[in-house]
Amino acid sequence: MNGRDFIITGLQSWDIPIGSNAIDIAREISVNNRVLYVNTPLDQMTLMRNQIKPEMMHRLDVLKKKLDPLRKISDSLWVLDLPFSIWSVNGLPDGFLFDFFNRLNNQKIFNYVRKVAAELNFKDYIHFIDNDIYRSFYSKECLKPALSVYYRRDNLQPYEYWNKHVGRLEPLIIEKSDVVVCNSPQYADFSRPFNPKSYDIGQGVDLSAYNPDLEYELPKEFKSIPEPRIGYIGDINSLRLDPDLLHDLAKSKPDYSFVIIGGEDKVFKEHALHSLKNVYFPGSIAKNTVPQYMSALQVCLNPQKLNEITNGNYPRKVDEYLAMGKSVIATKTATMDLFRDHAYLCLGVAEYQEAVEKAIQDTDPSNRAERIRFARSHSWKNNVEAIYSHIQELNQ
Fold first, then answer.
1. CA distances in angstroms from 319 to 203, 287, 301, 328, listed in the order given
2. pTM for this one?
3. In the CATH scheme, what is the homologous superfamily, with its name and number, of domain 220-376?
4. Residue 54 reports pLDDT greater than 90
5. Cβ(110)–Cβ(143) under 8 Å?
6. Cβ-based neighbours of 140, under 8 Å, separated by 6 or more
7. Which CATH code of 3.40.50.11010, 3.40.190.10, 3.30.390.50, 3.10.20.90 fits the domain covering 5-204+379-393?
8. Is the peptide bond before 228 cis (omega within 30 degrees of 0)?
């Protein structure tokens, strides 16, 4: 697809410090098309409580009129920060009151987006909605795009913040979208009863920074951590990860080092994992250092809980692990079945214990090469081509 105009709205700010599907998709689409990426506006409750995170600072400066709302990233890609705040609606009771104020938010957002799109001479544009159920709910009515594409890449319904309204609204936004694309078969299965034009497009991953042939310097924190090192890198969140599983696994393997890298939630911070001498928590690391830390691990983990959040979730980190040639052990979720020929999939501590021994012994160069090849087949180019194919089907 070439020469089209796309407007992208989603949950993640352009300035977010971690990986983002929506940002990677925007960059790939902009190779051959023009893209306007709209950052989520700050809401009034966030401003009143002064809950400003680093990735919000640019939006705050736009709000204070210190910066222009429109940033040009490349000749075909712009980021728009909205110069106003919106109502904080999530705490309202579900139904008429929520819908009334949410519609006002949508109208305010998309009236401004339409104005900027006109200034950029965007025409006949396609609106790509990245899981943005609330702030894009009335976008089809307000923005009037040529096509509306809803992207379901996460199950928000179990989360406390979302569960008041999303169970009612997500099926409705799926139903009124022209096409629905999902990053796992399970999410496509969820969407199809509400919209038969719902498709699994798989997942893209930017692996340009993950070079398994480089000689990386050993991170200073690892110099006192003995091999073999078995590790996890990412958000350490007890909604997704199983701290009890990690504890029991590490306790049963006292001669192995378990390195858990990332920011911890309250459950992990207070967990007995911290009492084990062979478990290490280096803390958060910069995104550009992830390959360096990953290279120092002999085995990589994705010890997820099995629940509504994880079962259909596509774990980008597993592709990153594999792209570095690492042996991978992960909880056997529905989506992880895609990796069954390239990772050790487990349920329960006993299977994890067995897999650890196999993974440490898995030093066959051909297995390593196949892991790298498989990971690199999940490119953003392939992923976006799948999106294009389903958009083009609508016009046939």
1. 10, 15, 12, 10
2. 0.82
3. Glycogen Phosphorylase B; (3.40.50.2000)
4. no
5. yes
6. 127, 148, 176, 177
7. 3.40.50.11010
8. yes
